[in-house]
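hiii so um. not sure if this is the right channel but i have a protein structure encoded as tokens and i wanna go backwards to a sequence. like what aa goes where. can anyone help
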């Protein structure tokens, strides 16, 4: 999981030709929002399409089992979906 342990207190200069429009608090807020999205909402293909939080808290196996159950119920039994 990505953590928000990023120090923004150092001196940094914007890239040439770019204007730094965010203050430190705004930047911290934006990074925090991204970290929350990345860990709790974004599914990761390398984690079997589960969120990092789902894996970290041990919910991944239950999530995958539930998805398999739903998939089994929604796929037609006749073998042909579009006849």
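sure thing!! here u go:
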């Amino acid at each position: 999981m990505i953590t928000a342990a990023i120090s923004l207190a150092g001196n940094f200069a914007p890239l040439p030709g770019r204007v730094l429009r965010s203050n430190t608090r705004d930047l911290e807020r934006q990074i925090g929002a991204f970290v929350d999205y990345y860990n709790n909402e974004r599914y990761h293909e390398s984690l079997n399409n589960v969120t990092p939080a789902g894996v970290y808290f041990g919910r991944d196996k239950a999530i995958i089992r539930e998805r398999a159950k739903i998939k089994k119920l929604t796929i037609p039994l006749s073998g042909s979906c579009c006849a």
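oh and The radius of gyration is 21 Å.
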